[in-house]
Give the backbone structure.
Amino acid sequence: MPPEPPPEGTTRATLLIEEFRALPATSDRRREIVAELDDDCGNPEVTAFLTTVVADPGEYDLARIEATTLLRLWPPPDPATRRTAGRALLTALHDPEEDLVRQYAAMALGPYADDPAVHEALTTVADTDDDPLMGAAARAALAERDRRT
């Protein structure tokens, strides 16, 4: 028996997000789904979803990394949404358990560094973090911000 078609008006992004949420927390398919949302990054539903994935320290780390990458490549144009996404990336930046997530978050914060809290966090990381990769990522994000202004 063929699968039931999705309800009228359901988008591909909505179906992918629903699939993501139905999977076990450690499923690598979760990372794949986030990557597949690249084409839908202008969709506010996708931006909100990526923001929650990035900010959740209990989320699968590779899914969080994919989400940081998409938020870096496709920062939301709306100032309030951009601020929310930037603050989610800050949450990931301060995650003491996930060094790789922290590094990707630092690299992703360049487009959000016009927010004083983001700028301050990046400056602090660039100047004081014990991890040289974190410092380099923060300096690169600040340089990206400077190129944008």
Summary: The chain has eight helices and no strands. Residues 12 and 75 are 21 Å apart (CA to CA).
